[in-house]
């Protein structure tokens, strides 16, 4: 469609109803003005957002209908404006504006809203940043350099429903600046997701700084977080030292094991998160910092709050967006895929042929409850990799794992027997109430479907 005839076709008598219906059906919002910046055409979606009648708007100066528009400037200058930010009715939008010429003379302009809100643009930008980060990762690896982060979302192995839902949530929250609290048992991959959040964010080109709150002695934690000035204490480095917050300025600070942070330090951390200012140890002035905080813990923070071991106000500050990583026992369908991936990675590292896994070995791995999650699975497979041959069977797995797979749990103690009987009866009752539908029965009991199947198997109720 040529720009020389487009406005004339719209304004003239030859406009077809089909063309107008097509423009009204566009996902983009569209406005056309004449040489005096009066509205020639306003499509239905844009008019609905502006809460105006398109017929009433026709002929009016565009600025009377669309606030902050620069359509008159485009008509006057004859210069297109692409991907420009515009505030309309409290929404930040991304707009394109094009002059329209007939015989070399500007006779009007066309404006389209490409993104109806900057959140849409951020989501698109996150995908671009992800691709750029992947290219940078491989480029850095080829040059022998160490990338700022080790992992990205593509490194998450698994296609179970829980993992897919979590990954979708990560993609949504990554572009923003909200604090994120990653929760999950040890070995589930909390740090991997912290790296992925940073690499998908608008801070991806900034620093990613990590601090393990459980690994630093309480006496040194303040200096590690906020830095110190020269002479702040005995043994202080000459010239002082920046803290993790200063190092992460413009990027992301990952506070791992935040549930182990001492109460006194929680107060100081809360103040920094509220004021966005850091006071180094021994300093007399505050320094502003621009840092996104991602925290992680395997500890039950709600219980710690009840016991007075973790500040409730700090919890709300870091838990703006929670991410909960499911344990391996709740995504058993991913275990075969994970096992093969881990073995392939070991084989590549050791320059050896990747061993295969028998179906019996996979069944044994799948039935295990994995209290240590992916880390425990990796350790088990590493031992089998070095001790077994090119084809790994059940006999190549640790003895304790084989025994638990071969034998039902021993219920020698009376308390265990009582609890087991109660669990069995609850399973049977749920199945009866749900007409044998296992998915509904699992939901009724408030447990994951994989856990429900595990319990059915343990009690000998899985008959097919």
Task: Give the arrangement of secondary structure elements.
Blueprint: H1 6-11, H2 17-24, E1 29-34, E2 39-42, H3 44-50, H4 54-57, H5 62-65, H6 71-77, E3 81-88, E4 91-102, E5 105-115, H7 118-142, H8 161-173, E6 180-183, H9 190-199, E7 208-212, H10 218-226, H11 244-247, E8 252-256, H12 263-275, E9 277-278, E10 287-288, E11 292-297, H13 301-306, H14 312-318, E12 321-324, H15 335-350, E13 356-357, H16 359-367, H17 373-387, E14 391-392, H18 399-406, H19 414-433, H20 438-445, H21 449-458
Parallel strand pairs: 6-11, 6-12, 7-8, 8-11, 13-14
Antiparallel strand pairs: 1-2, 1-5, 3-4, 4-5, 9-10
Helix pairs in contact: 15-17, 19-20, 20-21
Structure description:
The chain has 21 helices and 14 strands. It is extended and about 85 Å long. The chain has 464 residues and is an alpha/beta fold. The N and C termini lie far apart (63 Å).
